[in-house]
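Final report, closing paragraph on structural work. Over the funding period we assembled a curated collection of sequence-structure pairs, and we close with a single example.
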Amino acid sequence: MLRRLKLDTIKYSAIAQINLQNSLAYAGEMAYRSIFMIVILYVFVQLWRVTYQAAGAATIAGLSFRDTLWYLVMTETIELSRSRFADQMSNEVKDGSLAYTISRPYNYLLYHFAYGLGDMLLRVLINFTAGAILVTTLVGPMPFDPIYALPMIVSIMLAMALNFCMQGIIGLSAFITEDVSSIQLIYQKMIFILGGMLIPLDFFPDWLKNAAGVLPFYAMMYAPARLFVSFDWMQWLQVTGLQVMWIGIFALVLWALFRVGLRHVSINGG
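Its predicted structure, as stored:
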């Protein structure tokens, strides 16, 4: 059992490393695409500067102007770095190529997770660096204490794992709906609003903030970004517990959907 686990770890680590090396070959292109993030953050800087000036207050809902912008650096980093493979899964289901990919010597779901991980690591580094340079220049240094780097990395990785499970469920929903683009659109908008990607949930009415606080979008986007600007160990434990709970739920749903899909592929011959 331990030997099998060790071999699987080596195998999927190698897959992640291969994709990371492939991504490094196009690191310049990734850096170029980070210009999109710089433009967005520049607009946010101007927008929130006017908002805070109009409010005539140093803080709004407990967040200063600097905190809000660094919060947005983290949410944009997570959003622009997360894996988006639902369409690929959907296409494999629709064109029947899933029947061939599942016959290869690796677990289909773990392969996608490891492959996406390699690409995601580089994207996080490039996107965060680009955003940090801009916001540091225009607003000021980040409020985050590097001593909390390790738990912060854990929060981000769990957020990415949660996104993987939800993306996988959306992709395999093609067994039922064939076209998953509408589900993708709804998922994206939920992250934007209930995940607090564009506006911190602190600025929402209490009833909406409390409702969003139990949803997976909160654990994926708002919670890691909020910890980044105001880290608290108790809050981190609560967030980690929520992330692990939602990962467990969606991982079970994903696995069940995958097993049902395998029977469907077997019946129809791919």
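Residues 22 and 119 are 8 Å apart (CA to CA). The chain has 13 helices and two strands. We thank the funder for supporting this effort.
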